[in-house]
Amino acid sequence: MKKRIRDLIIGEERHIESWGEYKQVMLSGQFALLGILLCSMYLLIDILSGTYVSTPIFFCTIFFLSLSIFIHRQGDHCLANYFLLPTINIAVYLFASSESPHNGTFVFFIVNSVAAFAVFNYKQRLLSILFTVFTYLLFALAYFIDFSLLPKRIYTEEVMLFNLILNFTVALPAITMGVYLLISLNHYNAIQLVHSNEMLTKTNKELDRFVYSTSHDLRAPLTSIMGLLNIAERTQNPQEVKHYMNMMKDRIHSLDNFIKDITDYSRNNRLDISREKVNLHDLVTEIWEGLKYAPEAERINFYVDIPEGTFVESDKNRLRIIIGNLLSNAIRYHDLRKEERFIRLRHQLNGRVFYLKVEDNGQGIAPEYHGKIYEMFYRGNEKSKGSGLGLYIVKETLMKLSGSIHLESSPGIGSTFTVKLPKRIV
User: Fold this and answer.
1) 275 partner at 20 to 30 Å CA-CA among 4, 128, 168, 242?
2) Is a pLDDT exceeding 80 seen at residue 264?
3) Taking the model in full, what pTM does it have?
């Protein structure tokens, strides 16, 4: 039911990035639906009692409230509120001015005032104040000036009591919804502030470590290349020169990979999440095509156990980073002692989530290191050719996509990384 109301107000294929704006749009649409329901109910009561004077007003109100929902579905939420608030204010005024205050219609003026502050954000607070002033002026016109566009309607005490109870029963939940949203937004902003402070502290610590480690890891290959160049200049043997050139290429390749890892880390932190349909089989094949010609990957068999035409809705670039880093690690840490070396990538769909498993029969990871491998710049040993950023980036990227990762590994046997991700990110 909740999803149907959401799709009715916003539209099935539309998304609102901001949680606060989403809640305000939903409340605005719910106010419109509540107004349509109330008008339809009173219209039915009038028709059954043989009263048709108010029928055009009910139809006009229903039309403009429906138009407000239609505009929400088009994505212009501020314009939708320009139709919503004047419509409900004028409709309440017309009925309040034509009947006794004992009917309780005035309670909807309070609803309208709360709605004015609930459906607009802080930057639009002036609009909220203006609509509240407009509401009060209509209230004053209805009860302090003897003027009405509709004929005065006289009810019996029993009918007035029924109308009072009905109006209060509808108005109280509407006011509660508006106030609850304002409290929720305040609570949400407080949580976001705490989260931002925690992220800032974490970022500062990572930045200090990042500057220290990158300065070392960027200088080391360059220093090594300079040393090899000096040696090569003094060597007359062409074979030795070729050997030194290959060593320099290896250092440059390591430096290039390190810069790529830094770029991936930066992009993951800066870029918003994009949503698109991703063909998993094609993406994995494309990533492997870019890795299989590396010298380390020459004798590794790669198996993709993902059927063609398997789609998920996710961030393609971030999926590429996750899969690419896991496959690169499996290549980098393969076991040279084994004749048959393999990397197998499997998947499993399970309701709203999907799993990707990257399995290899490489060197494996000892249990005592399973909790450390996701730390920034962590290397299992000094001989490691990696930057120490790969798995850290994988974990950070998964956090952005509301995913997780699990490792099963034993030294000398191999490793299996299991990635869990939502089938459709929201």
Assistant:
1) 4
2) no
3) 0.51
